[in-house]
What does this fold into?
Amino acid sequence: MTDKRILIDALEGDPLPQLLACLLSSKGAVQPDTPDGIPGPDDALWFPSQHGFLSKMGKLQGSDCHINIVIRRPSENGGLNPDDAEHAVISQVAQRLSPGRLRFHALTEDARRLAVQQGYSDCNVLEPQGAARHNRPRATIDPSSNRILLPRDTQMRQIGLHAVNWARLSRDYDFAALPEAAPDWHDLARLAAALPKGPDTATDPLYVFITPNGVGIGHLTRQLAIARALQEQNPDRPPRIVFWSFSRAAIIAQKAGHGVLLRHTAEHLGAEDAPWQKWETQAFAQFLRQHGPAGIVADGSSIAPFVVDAMRQPGCHHARLFWVQRGMWQADADIRGLSDILYCDKVLIPGDLAHEADTGPTSRRNPNPPGLSETRITPPVTLAPGADRLARGAARRALGIKWRRRCLVSLGGDAFARTETLREELVQAAARSGVHLVWAQSPLATRPNQKDGALKTIAVYPLNRYYDAFDGVIAAAGYNTFHELMQSCDMPVLFLPTANARLDDQPARARFAADAGWADVLDPESDVSAAQVFADFFAKVRSGTKVDRNSGLRDGAGEMAREISALTMPEHTDG
Amino acid sequence: MDVVTESQRTADFGSVRRELVRLCAAGAYVDAFLALEEATLAQGEATGLWEYLERQMVQSGETTLAEAVRTRLAAAGSYTAQMAIADAQSAIDLGEPAQAELILRSSFDLDDLPPMAAKLMGQAMALGARSEALEHFAASGETDPDAALAEIDILRDSDRLKEAEERCRRYIGLHAGDHRFHVRSARIAAALMKWDEALQTWEHLVERPGFPRSVAMANRIQVLNRLGHSEETEALFAEFLLQEPELPIVVQTAFAIGLVNLADAILARAEEHHGITPLSERDWDAICQTLLQSGQIGQVAWLANRGLPVGPSADQALTAAKRLSIRSLESVATQEEGRRLTSPEHLLPFPPYIRMRRPSPRQSLDDARILMVNASLVSGGAERQFVFLVKALLEQGVPPDRIDLAFFSLAKDRGRAHFLPMLEESGVRVHDLQALSGQYDQMERDLDDRCQLLPRPLRGDVAALHHIIRQVQPTVLHGWQDRAALACGFAGAHLGVERIVMSARNMQPQRREPGNRLDGKALFTALTLLPNVVLTANCVAGVGDYETWLGLPSDTVRLLNNGLDLKPLRGNNRPARPADRDDPIRVTGVFRLAQNKRPLLWLETIARLRELSSRRIVPRIVGVGPLAQDVLAHAQNLGLDDLRIEGDLVSEHAIYSDADVVLLMSRVEGTPNVLLEAQALGIAVAACDVGGVRHAMLNRGDAAGLVLPADVSAIEAAARIDGWLPGALNADPSARRAFVRDHYSLETLGRNALDLYRIEQQVRD
It folds into this structure.
């Protein structure tokens, strides 16, 4: 690589590298300095502090690059800054290096004056170019309590001093340090406040969707729905979408025309979690620096640590973070992830028709500090097939099934072990009723079950495109299937909720539907036998019963896309 | 009984022997052992084969089996010298020096030990902290470098530094290629304060092929730093960093010279890169030990929480913290959080059972038992004051058997017993805590855990004090100067001593050493808030300085003025000198030749004064210190060829008899005894306005002292002195004597001390 690079040395807990990356370049050219890499002669190496420089000096002897050192003022009050000796050592080092190789900078005029007193006669103040922004709310740095105070509406919020990238924060906030804070904090605040008004909304937006390795494909399906809505809402300039996917079903996203970066979890690799997190963080940070996405859309029960860590790295401040956080968690679900709300710009909660039955932690207000974020609840999000939905005949032809009473059985991926025990009972009940079963194979299923060899099996995505081919549906009560069926189908539905889901309270959702008369449910807690439930259900299917659910299809994905666009696209912000 | 014929026996012996050799060659020692045991051989023949088997086992490293064979031989009454040596070596390897010593004592005549046995005996005794070990090492030191080093180390450990120095010199000649003797030589020179020699030796090691250059540089840096040669320190440190030294050495050196931000940055980098370029477990262990010693327990917790191999010492400390329910360490996630959790701060506030203690009651002299503690008895003003305090107490009627004195070290060769002769005849008991090492009591679990989390030197000091406090059971514990004060406060508070007095000197630690993270501020504050603890300073300025620094209300810190023993001075009272223009004016400086005393400014002031004054100015300095060479060189440059420098003078007569004026130019001072003593003799005094100087001078009349601005230049100082001198020399000296007598007598000091101790004072007739 021969291009001139700007390499920034970053030490944990120092916000200056984040601000420097914003100050020095938009994207691409700024990179973090690597542990063992030797900079080339054209590279500019930046050390955000004198001690950072000294701690790495020995490794720079093999390089002729220009070295920029920001001379900092004390970051602690009370005389606990024995920096004089450091300056003297740097002076000695300067004498040993070729003339002019070291360049010294200060963050403010006060800092520069002090630096000159300390012997850096040619020190200059780092002046941001371009117009600074005005009339923004003020973020107040309070180092003594390790936090930043953020005014939001009439409330004062707070966030950890190093919780988020300061350059990211500086787009929305002015900065000031509490008067009693040590001088360095004032210097940092001044620089953060003076950063120029950059392109905080992208002209050629890119969104990266983080897809976890879930039990089913619910995360991916929801994200595909949002991605499609984002592109449909901007037909003239459709944003690019990339999936950072840990889901093995990522091929679906690729088939939908999106970029896919297939990643591997520590579990996939058999790796220790800590080093895996580090590598994944570096990889994601590199992606953020190179591509500067306008938004990161994460779907899951928490924000993966590598996402948060990468966004804190220098040059990774461009993206807004959106968290698609489905509700209906089990009452005993691990709720630690809810605290990740503070890292987000917006938490988007896809509505649940059964929300009245939600008794888990998501039924209440998130008790964690909200940090930067706002929360929006949208209508249910489904990947509606729209015009692609096939009419009954076309659907049956496409699936190759004959003109008989057909019932779709869609029980999710291989993970649904409990329902395996019902399989035989189900098959026999269908046969007794004269209903023919068609088994949907999950994209996550590794291979067809041998027992199903004599049965009709289909493997299509999205499945809801073909719903009209069927006279009844037996399904798990996961979020997506539930809402697809309840919002857009009128055939009888029998839910077989799985209790295996780590978070999703499928039984509650299914019972809600049963109570509303929308569907039948095979409730393990009920006294009614499975054989009886199946018999009753197949009787409805056999008779061609139609169910009026009256729930209507609402466009939750479109609303989420609009929320995302509002923060990331010009036409949504200028007004 | 079987009868064995000669031919059968011979045949059996031969076959057994052949079988034994074959099995040993095959490494089948257990089979060989069994074969020999089962053979029915006569004792004389069997012994030889057993010995053969033992030798083979030793050579092949089968030490356990060899031991079993030796036991069998010993039981049979056949146990050779080689076997005893092997058993002793084995015992030492197993960490059982007493067992090794027993084996050797049983097997050899101690007056005539063979070399290998002598060496092992030395090792065994050294491990058992026995000074007799020396003799045994001495026997083989000339030919065996390990024995020679052991001998030197025992001498060093016993603070017999001059002997160690002499042996080291001898052995360097005999084992010239061995770096270790040069390293010992440098360390001994530093301990003896032969700084130039220490520096030269480290410099020699920097260039010595095969010796790690960065290690030698790091040591040289630390010596230079200690001498206050900041420019050289910084230059060498820059050079050192360019060598890419190993991280543990950089971290240790950076902490040693106060570059804590740099040390933090290095740690941050090492932690961040550990997943990619990991440090060894040994390196992390070394780094964490440095952190623990520097009170950086939070950073140790941070590294441990990140899953790094912090090493056994750190693990032990963190386990102790867990037992103490210090939960904050478990959640340290970032270096910044770690930096904020330092020791001893995270042990504070004290547990309720300490904080709720009642103020100590007044006690009668009969019930009192006073334990006074200081770091040492080096030649210094504070140490002299310590001695005066003892005298003052005795003069107040405290019986000598009610007073115990403890010192962290009284090593003579290090100059730490300078004032000891003045105490030895007083009848008080003197304890050298260093000499008690190894005799420490088992601490209570809670205190032991707390102790493990303390930084250096507080940790060792508290451990040492624990023993003596338990032994003496004092009702009053008095720590003298910051180091001993903090240790006494901590140990005394935990051990329930009724009354604790912490006597700080003249200025808070940050003023002396800006940026020092181990200034004890939080501990001082917490201790001062305890109802049975009182903090004192020895001058008005010091009282205010400590109160401001610790954020305490005024009148919290008590004043305990210095005291002066006026008796030896009485016979030395001299009349005022006539202002005869022909007489020279003898200007004497009495101070340590160290940066804080500004000896070079003192010389420059004298040089300027000579230019200004119509009188002949004769300069003289009484003192020693690291800047001695610099002072001589600077005096030459200034043309002060007649400057006399006199070292360790003890008697007031020797120090002051040749002085018309005593001049100090110190940057920092407390209550300078020098000025008090000089005035007690009627001598005119001048000094810069720092610390308690102003309060230690007569401030009215012609005999008043001259107070110079704190940051005065040589020109200005000389001008002011020149204007002040004629009047001061002609003034009545008795006014100065009266001033000292009224404010700084031992009687006043003794009364004030007993009041602080809450001891009822005896009514004197």
